[in-house]
């Protein structure tokens, strides 16, 4: 399946009106120019019979089209369809975006998905039009283009940061994808971007974006030493497979983008970090799609109208999020935050040089698994639960990120001592990225419903929430946000 054969009229109307809802969901290729664009491209709209639609940039490139140098397809938000879906293709696309093919090859990708390379290739071609190698090649080219446009890194550094195996491969791929050499894009100098490892990137999103509600949520839960919110900016330490460092996220004024300021010890993990930050701030969401469903409920309609563009906070570290969830069982947000801070100060790795109030990296699962966790104010049951979780992650290969198979992961979580449906649902919502995760027994959810005069018994909630699918996680966050204080979500 190379082109999108259905809904041609709908997609063509979208590019005529430059509808931002379709940005990143479709790519428009023009046969007379050999160029493919975003649906919001400011160039004159081509005649319909010259247009071809593709579901991903790699498929357009495989058909012989080059990326537009005006609308920058490489900067478009990702398609939320793959975040909504949890099947093989969706998981493969998320892993490719994280750079798994670059580090482990197609064989490594197939192995993590527990399928053969041939089956994986067949499934990807059927869904998006190209196989894993082509998708990875396009991802590398797009990453390189962003770094060329937005940083002063040397072209050699950019080539290897983006995942290319050689300068020759870098030059050939960029020529094929964009119709020119990498040096052609380097037209200006960006002040403050000269030190390699200290970078600022723009992460685009589809408006609207309720940044203040998201920031408030994170601020209430910020772990001392690991996170802080200062001057409308979120800062934290991060640990990645080959690097560690500090990131900052803040809104870019007058643009539909979030600024990511980062300093990493090694830029090899840059692509993975960008994807994690996109997931963390839910930047690939389509607010209009969520609103279309939730606004049909008389209870949720005014809540959605009050907070347009509300996002679900994700995480940059699935293990850390799971620890938070266990600590937050049946105690206040402040109490859970205090316990998490004690774990960090006792077991976390100190930064060589503190950055503001940031002093530690979050404790590694191996460290938690081998610790007795005594003297931290933890109950015996929480200690058992945390050590079991840490062993599952460190020794048994439990993955707590968006590449994980959701149902299987939830099943494994529920087998751990001290992990019940609420905890598993919360982890699924924020770490696994399930937009339909629903903590049915959550006290804050029940309190919000009662405040709005809605029956809050389990059966009534479950029945009403059926109409909120596939966005029950968004409905939950709207209800939590409707409370003056949010007593439970942790």
TrEMBL record:
EC number: 3.2.2.21
Catalysed reaction equations from the record: Hydrolysis of alkylated DNA, releasing 3-methyladenine, 3-methylguanine, 7-methylguanine and 7-methyladenine
CC cofactor: Zn(2+)
Keyword Transmembrane tagged: no
Any one Gene Ontology BP term: methylation
UniProt keywords, alphabetically: Activator, DNA damage, DNA repair, Methyltransferase, Transcription, Transcription regulation, Transferase
Domain of life: Bacteria
Entry keyword annotation includes Methyltransferase: yes
PANTHER family: DNA-3-METHYLADENINE GLYCOSYLASE, DNA-3-METHYLADENINE GLYCOSYLASE 2
Protein name: DNA-3-methyladenine glycosylase II
Species name: Reticulibacter mediterranei
